[in-house]
Amino acid sequence: MQNSIKFYALLAAIAFGLNWLWEMAQMFAFEIKPEDGLGKIFLFCTLAAVIDALVTIGIYVLLMKFNLANRKVFYPLTILLGAICAVGFELFALRFELWSYNRTMPVVPFLEVGLLPLIQLTTFVPLAIWLANRIVCRPVGSLKI
Known about the structure:
It is a single chain. The chain has 145 residues and is an all-alpha fold. The protein contains four helices and two strands; from the N terminus they run H-H-H-E-E-H. The chain has helices at 2-25, 38-65, 71-95, 115-136; strands at 107-108, 113-114. Strands 1-2 form a two-stranded antiparallel sheet. Helix 1 packs across helix 2, helix 2 (38-65) runs antiparallel to helix 3 (71-95) and helix 2 crosses helix 4. The longest helix is centred in the middle third of the chain and has 28 residues, at 38-65. It starts with a helix and ends in a 9-residue tail after the last helix. The mean pLDDT is 91.
């Protein structure tokens, strides 16, 4: 049990770190209102990174719950579920005007969401899980790392 707690804490820390850096780096492609100070942007990016870390843990738990730890299936599913979550978050946020893109954000045709947020979860969900497993040095289920 203690190893599981350590693994999930490590996974959360890695996912948070990767996503927070990305959130801050991609801010150039979002509309920022003059009244949005650095503190508000920092807080918003931090909250988004926490949510992204929780999504990463949720995807991991879901796949392990359904015993989908086979490497040939596991990582493609993390990419697919990360992409689905990213598209869902972006569509929701754009619909309810939580944020908007400026002209520097490449938009994915048909999906009408920003490419940078889409790349974020499709890349960082599997990467965070892979890194956490590598650091812990233990295969999870039949997942051979």
